[in-house]
Amino acid sequence: MEEPVQGASPAMVHAVEEISEFTAIANALCINIGTLSPEWIFSMKAAAVRANELNKPWVLDPVGVGASRFRTERCLELIALRPAVIRGNASEIMAVVGATIAPTKGVDNSTDALEAAKDLAKKAQCIVAVSGAVDLVTDGKRVLGVSNGVSLMQRITATGCAVTALIAAFVSINPGRPLESAAYALALFGLSGEIGYERSSGPASLRMNMLDALHALDEGAVLSRIRIAQI
């Protein structure tokens, strides 16, 4: 009997000539607006449209939204294409809802953005996840709080981008339950940070140890240490 395939295999694609084929073979799509250009935006929209045509879930990371009018407007256009999940920090989620043009700090108190997240989830008809000391995940009515993780993870660039990609992988396995999929992805990522922190001396070693911990997670650790609660 063959062993089941485990893990997710990412492909970073932005050439529009490849979008249709790569989206067709992917189980889920992750769109991250961290790097923007007119050409990349065209590819992002094409990928989202193609994913919708193929009934495949896609996840949006609105990196830095609110920092410029160009970025904010392009983000709103992508949200109109119906992502399954939007994952951002508090300032990003509040910027999306308010369509504000103001500098974003990167990491805020997630509870400050709870009402904005619920409002966005209702309007966009998707799941909204807010990263913070306690991660919040909502469909506009239900709210799950995830309390795994350590504060030092905020000192590592691109942890938010990484967990958004992990959410896409989880949603691809269980597309019918994106709320729970997003919460479990956040919990496992945070748990990996906790385990990695136990043998780290700073953010550089935490990055390495966190990835090792994520790779080595077993069922016992997951079941005994993840902390997800209904709020």
TrEMBL record:
Pfam families xref list: HK
Classification via Gene3D superfamilies: 3.40.1190.20
Keywords, ordered alphabetically: ATP-binding, Kinase, Magnesium, Metal-binding, Nucleotide-binding, Thiamine biosynthesis, Transferase
Cofactor(s) the record lists: Mg(2+)
InterPro entries in alphabetical order: Hyethyz_kinase, Ribokinase-like
Any GO molecular function: ATP binding
Reactions catalysed: 5-(2-hydroxyethyl)-4-methylthiazole + ATP = 4-methyl-5-(2-phosphooxyethyl)-thiazole + ADP + H(+)
Keyword Nucleotide-binding: yes
Catalytic EC class: transferase
Protein known as: hydroxyethylthiazole kinase
Organism of derivation: Adiantum capillus-veneris
